Amino acid sequence: MTASTAPAPFAAAFAEPAGSPIRELFPYLSRPGMISLAGGYPSPSLFDAEGLAQAARQALLQGAGALQYGATEGLPALREALALQARERGMQAGAGDILVTTGSQQGFDLLVRVLVEPGDTVLVEVPAYPATLQALRLAQARILPVPMDEHGLQTDALAALLAGLPADQQPKLLYTVPNFSNPRGTLLAAQRRQALVRLALQHGFRVVEDDPYGELRFDGETGTPPPMPPTVRAVGEQLAPADSNPVVYLSSLSKTVAPALRVGWMLADAAVLRRCAVAKQTADLCTSPLTQTVAACYLQSGRYPATVQRARQEYQRRMQALVQGLASGDSGIRCSRPAGGMFVWASLDTRIEPQKLFDAAVAQGVIYVPGKAFYPQDPDLHTLRMSFAAPEVPQIEQAVQRLRTAVQQAG
Length: 411
Ligand SMILES: Cc1ncc(COP(=O)(O)O)c(C=O)c1O
Fold this sequence. Notes:
The chain has 411 residues and is α/β, with parallel strands linked by helices. It folds into two domains: 19-47 and 306-410, Aspartate Aminotransferase, domain 1, CATH 3.90.1150; 49-302, 3-Layer(aba) Sandwich (Aspartate Aminotransferase, domain 2). Helix content is 41%, strand content 15%. The strands form three sheets. The protein has an eight-stranded mixed beta sheet with strand order 2-9-8-7-6-3-4-5, with helices on both faces. A four-stranded antiparallel beta sheet has the order 10-11-14-13, covered by helices on one side. Strands 1-12 form a two-stranded parallel ribbon. The radius of gyration is 22 Å and the shape is globular. The chain starts with 25 loop residues before the first helix and ends with a helix. Bound molecules: pyridoxal-5'-phosphate.
């Protein structure tokens, strides 16, 4: 046998990397009869299988265009359709302002690669989407939490935090999900959107507005969805000089059409887009032209608005089943009542031991995500996230019963 030297060590960020806390729950999901309130998975019954089958057929009939490598920035027809979505959401956009990404997850990853160096300060609303924390940890960023309340990220607290930071620790980026946040379900108040952009301009940081859920707004008292506040990027258009909008907008077809397409998109100024396109060249050359063509055909088919409408109504029914089920009597779990999206954020009575509750819930056949996954540090262990999107209403009712039994066992 030849004498051998140990292989070279892994890069520092990957020496002992923590995996996604949500993906680590996967083994529980395969247990027979388990009801999952864990992942932010769209409902299988809401996929427009017929419309997507037609779009897929149409895509394949296009032949080479759908089967060949494509431009890194994305297929022109899809960029056009996504720019139209951006304009419908009140933002200025042409096809050339859009970068198609492999899910919006890739959009954030590219931004981190082109902007963040080890030790750089990045502000994150907390509780935060775990994959954002994971990407920032791998980039060895210094993550500073910005607190939230029921109206989203607290801009007063942000202003105070920024005022106390030395010049060499000013942030490069701030990450927020202003519309029906993951995990807290909150909608960022309109005045706070203005305050956030003003702070970004004053302190010279970029804002990442991650918006996969904004279209899933529930009906209000009048039976129609109340108007949305302007996107943070649209506020940036009003407040910043032309071409200096500090807001990068990310969105996705995952929650409204199908996550398997892996089609997300970024709307940003030319300097950011160009750099992210270069970073994407080494990540995957281009997002699958086949699924991009399917997505473009689907958006052009005119079926998208009805699909979104169905999802909005169904998710509202499911949210109500979960929230009302937990609100009746003393469930030991107090939860938010979101105005859209897929998530309910909850806090536990202090008499309940969080790990005991999780174990009891799993034994009862229901699973959720314990709150600690959503904090970069100092987690509030008496919190948890539940998604009402994937299970049908009867399953949600059963999940509530199981949770109540688990609370009794853990209290
Ligand atoms: C806030 C947020 N951003 C991004 C993503 C990733 O979405 P995509 O499937 O577009 O990569 C998710 C998925 O759960 C999410 O909740």
